[in-house]
Amino acid sequence: MGLVIRGGHIIDPANKVDGKHDIFVDDKGFVAAVGNAPPGLEVTQTLDATGKIVCPGLVDLRARLREPGLEYKATIESEVRAAVAAGITTLCCPPDTDPVIDTPAMAQMIQQRAWRFGLAFIHPLGALTRGLAGERLTDMEALDDAGCVGLSNALKPVTDTLVMRRALEYAASFDLTVFLQSEDPWLHGSGCVHEGEVGTRLGLPGIPEAAETVGVARDLALIEQTGVRAHFCQLSSARAVAMVTEAQGRRLPVTADVTAHHLHLTEHDIGFFNTQCHVLPPLRSVRDREALREALKSGALAAICSDHQPHEPDAKLAPFGDSAPGISGLETLFPLTLKLVDDNVLSLNDAIACVTCKPANILGIDSGHLSVGATADVCVFDPQEWWALSEDKLVSRGHNTPFLGWELRGRVTHTLVGGQMVFELDQKAEN
Amino acid sequence: MSGDLQFDSQGRLHHFLTTEGLDRDTILQILDTAESFVSVGEREIKKVPLLRGKTVVNLFFESSTRTRTTFEIAAKRLSADVINVDTRVSSTTKGETLLDTIRNLEAMHTDLFVVRHSRSGAAYLVAQHVPSHVRIINAGDGSHAHPTQGMLDMFTIRRYKGSFENLKVAIVGDILHSRVARSQIHALTTLGVPEVRVIAPKTLLPTAVERLGVHSYTDMRAGLDDIDVVIMLRLQRERMESARIPSEQEYFNLYGLTTDKLRLAKKDAIVMHPGPMNRGLEIDSSVADGPQSVILPQVTNGIAVRMAVMAIIMGGKAQEEMPAKRPARRHA
Amino acid sequence: MAQELRPLLARNPMMIGIHTGGVWVAQRLHDLLKLQEPLGTLDISFYRDDFTRIGMNPEVKASDLPVNIDNRHVILVDDVLHTGRTIRAAMNEIFDYGRPASVTLAVLIDRNGHELPIHADIVGHTMSLNKGQHVKLTSDSATSEGALELKVQEAGE
User: Fold this and answer.
1) CB of A18 closer than 8 Å to CB of A53
2) E strands, A76-170, where?
């Protein structure tokens, strides 16, 4: 009872594998061998991957599944289906559900829901403060025990600097990673776009670069003070990236990620009030986008995430500032990452690392690689296939994406989770 | 620029949403047509039958008696049936969305919506979601645009100054929040005005305002030097609460237009204000009522300009079926 | 035409030309008859019945009736009377200015193809043309001195 993926080109950045090999999966769903068939494995199933690339299943650092609390937008079930259709086998979800993930019971409930579907794995982040209110600390160690891979206050800044210091200190006591969305709430104000040329043209209230740099500066000072391991989520500005790079140079334990859309879009894509480009932090200038790409190249930004935020159609049918921010991003994460290879930003190996082993390392989980003995979470994709993103191709309940109509290259054909085939592209339906 | 849906597939004006992206000929056509409508306003019977049988809905989500009245008179002089809907006190407060309101009114066979809303982009949103035979005029959306006001200011400037080619124009006050200023700036630069200045403290100037093609000044005295047209903007009194200006007195001293400061401009400079004025805050009464003020003629011209815009976007194309345009999408 | 109009002079008529060709013809007649009052001009763009089909004329000119027309005898001048729709629009516009005592229609060319019960009182020439043909008055300059020329055009020209 084993499976072989035959004839594919394996790219496994964690193990520096880059070549044509067969990969064998045993009956318990673990990688049994890469290359020659292991002795004693009875192969009963063969997946022909000729002309395709076989890589670890993707790890997405941030995806909102909308359950519990906002099931009219999406559910765990609908979104894990979308994830595996996009080659994503592990998702990390922020604690800003309703109720908030600030108790072990909530953390376990979400993971159990995901196990029931047997599709992608879900690792929750626990709340840094109770109810995300920024006042009292959560039972961090208990949240850790319940499976939370880190702590975060999501998009709600902890405005009281003393509370923030204590939270970081406490997390540091138990060697927990804190995920930060650093921003000064007063400078953000009522802003909804980057404070710059486009906001000025459209008369939309801006979020200045300083909203991010002031937040990052404060948090870096507290990280240095407390020694906590911290991860900056979705940096958007050149200056903030430079500050984090400088801190890494001083060997502060900080990492950072960027969203796929901030690597491809700028404020100019808003055109005349395209609410699909309403995201937080906002799409910034061309200069900022170039700096984000450079930082990805240098490794200062370790991972690319989807920051998936599915919405019902009405959420975007409002004047720009009143529309709900966020992009349904699961299904564009991989093609937009691969596009960076075509744009000469990253090598194919590095691009794959940014969505597999590197985010897994940030989460501290054993995932994102194809080592012998590892859980066989595998993504098989056709690197040459061009396809246009359209609403009927989206599996996610959220169709809110500015990338509809984009011609993308690289299409996931098969996804395995724990050795089980959980997604197979229906080629006939396509043609 | 992608998503510019105020033009139809043949590049003709279909909606009137912003002065940005209009070409010079289109602006001049509006001004010339408005000139013809001025004489209609001076006749015994001030009506022409152009929009007979058409229904115009003035949909105001933000109150403005004066703007609504000039649109109403304009539509009536074109023989349209006019309905005023003041949604500030009706449906939207009951949780109905902007688009719900539009769809309900559209079911009453409306041909033209004149939309005023407190949020930037509201008129674009509406234009995106109405059937192709329905036209939209933006009567002010948030801080974004108020294009008919911009056009009537161009009309007034041309009446007093003849042409645009050698003018220096200064816009003074709360540029940051002003939809009027943005509409004026796009129109002035397209019409070939060589120098447009904006004058305000930095707290009331948008970031990167120079990218709109203007020069910015924080010193009003320097900014008024050699100016042909001074446009004063209304200052919302709330701006003190958001710490943008310290006090009314300081603002008046530094940025209020007085006869003394007006002397720094050209002798024949004209003074404009889109109204309503705060006398003693941004403008002194002696200037507002003085010989260089053209503030009242501005109001009169508003009707002719709005008639021109309505006539131009409502004419023709009735039998063509145009698919509703969505914002153009960029290819990867 | 001027000869035929002369008997009307006793009633102190006012003359109105319709943009653009009608104004040229009216200007000539106005000079020949040595009328004292200035010539009135009408641009019927705002009264056209085909507005919803063809849209706003991009070169609309202001109508200009310099004297009050109440109780006056109006001589309305156009270059070509074809369908009669232009005259219908012009009459509507005249009545929005006041109530004239009478309106006399004078046209340089009366051609076949009338679609409304409108007939000219004074006609320069009568022409019979095919359905697709149009007759058009052109001027080599816009002034009254410029030579006027009649052209027959095929449709689509």
Assistant:
1) no
2) 88-93, 121-124, 126-127, 151-152
Q: Is residue A324 within 8 Å of residue A139, measured between CB atoms?
A: no
ipTM over 0.85: yes
Cα–Cα dist A358/A344, whole Å: 20
For domain C2-154, give the fold: Rossmann fold (3.40.50)
Q: Which residues of B touch C (CB under 8 A)?
A: 12, 29, 32-33, 35-40, 43-45, 47-50, 311-312, 314-319
A86-96: string of b/e by CB count within 10 Å (b at 16+)?
Answer: bbbbbbbbbbb
pLDDT digits (tens, 9 = 90+) for A130-163: 999 999 999 999 999 999 999 999 999 999 999 9
Considering CB atoms only, which of C53, C59, C63 is closest to B316? Answer: C53
A386/A295 same-domain check: no
CA distances, B203 to each of B170, B173, B223, B243, B275 (Å):
18, 10, 17, 9, 22
Please state whether beta strands A23-25 and A31-34 pair in parallel, antiparallel, or not at all (unpaired): antiparallel
pLDDT in tens, A89-116: 999 999 999 999 999 999 999 999 888 8
Specify the number of domains making up chain A.
2
Mean pLDDT of chain B: 88
CATH level 3 topology of B4-145+301-321: Rossmann fold (3.40.50)
Query: What is the extent of the structural domain holding A419?
Result: 2-54+374-430
Which residues of A are identified as catalytic? 307
The pLDDT assigned to C150 comes to 74
Cis before A157? omega within 30: no
- Residues carrying CATH 3.40.50.1370, chain B: 4-145+301-321, 147-296
Residues 6+ apart with CB under 8 A from A84: A119, A120, A415, A417, A422, A423
Q: C96, B316: Cβ pair inside 8 Å?
A: no
CATH topology of domain B147-296: Rossmann fold (3.40.50)
What single letter denotes the amino acid at residue B228?
A: D
Kindly state the tokens that stand for B326. 């969505």
